[in-house]
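Help! Submission page says 'invalid entity' but I think these are all valid:
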Amino acid sequence: MRVTTQRVEIFREVASSCEHPDAETVYERVKERLPNISFDTVYRTLASLEDMDMIFRVDSMLPKARFDADRRPHNHFLCVKCGEVYDIFPEDGYEVKIPENSKKFGEIKDVNLQVRGICNKCRH
Amino acid sequence: MRVTTQRVEIFREVASSCEHPDAETVYERVKERLPNISFDTVYRTLASLEDMDMIFRVDSMLPKARFDADRRPHNHFLCVKCGEVYDIFPEDGYEVKIPENSKKFGEIKDVNLQVRGICNKCRH
DNA sequence: ATACTTAATAAGAATTATTCTTAATAAGGT
DNA sequence: ACCTTATTAAGAATAATTCTTATTAAGTAT
């Protein structure tokens, strides 16, 4: 895995943002520093970084994939109206409890808890 | 909301399946009974049924949306290798525990817990 | 330092899932 | 049976993402 300027910049962009940017946003921002970057490179690199567990794809139910580089355990509040994703950092000692029989389907790699609702901004 | 043949057949198709079919699968199957059904009608109707909380969209991280008409509380095991979705019906008394501070982001409508891993079939 | 090998890239075409447009159809009320 | 209007079929359009191909540059060997 070669360390290219594009990869470094794309990772830095996701890692320095707490807004769970989508591919287009990453592209627009990295383009300011690397004007020749292509859309394909952004998509390809985001996929590679995801494979390496350096970033995660946020499950947003919206057509655009969004990314998160924060590896601290946390959950997401998804606004079903505007699509905004907010980080929920659980209180100390919190742990997601999964059903006992989850493991009968296979080997568990990850658990994803998403809270959906109307965010404060959308409630006026 | 008019009760059309198409709507009835589309709902029946999702409701009678436990495989969380995608729009294309629903289209193919309903087409056997209604040969003139259009793709657009399937998409539009699935969206309407979702609005009416008669069916739900399954969060699969895959490009195709999948649907579920089972309104019993349950969770999903998603195989990250083949994309298959399995229903997890939790043992009696189980309830998803969400972080205390989830509600500070807005009004909670729904909680979604997804277990990801490699399913038994993909482990050989 | 310089050359070499090959993975990674840019550019834009292609693909996939989904949504839109428009004229025709049929549900449910009159 | 008729009328109104929501719903539909058909296919074009769009949006997000992925693929193709020739070019470039990272990391290694010289």
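Support: the input was valid. A stray whitespace character was the problem, and the output above is from the cleaned input. Residues 16 and 69 of chain A are 8 Å apart (CA to CA).
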